[in-house]
Automatic annotation (TrEMBL):
This is Uncharacterized protein. It comes from Adlercreutzia equolifaciens. It comes from the Bacteria. The chain crosses the membrane at residues 16-35. It holds the Pfam family DUF6724. Keywords: Membrane, Transmembrane, Transmembrane helix.
Amino acid sequence: MNIEELYHFLFETMPGIGILVGGGLVISIIVCFILERKTRKQFKNHEKTEDDWSLFDDDEDES
């Protein structure tokens, strides 16, 4: 398989575009996982306070 065939497959066919999108998602998930682990190692002794932000925090009970 030469470069022209590979280019045609990846950028001009639906399965090739699917592979590019899927590969991008997998790479993004791996990078996010690695960076999250590094952040948790760096801030492992962090004590929670009232001002801490949480993804799962319910804003409705602040009223």
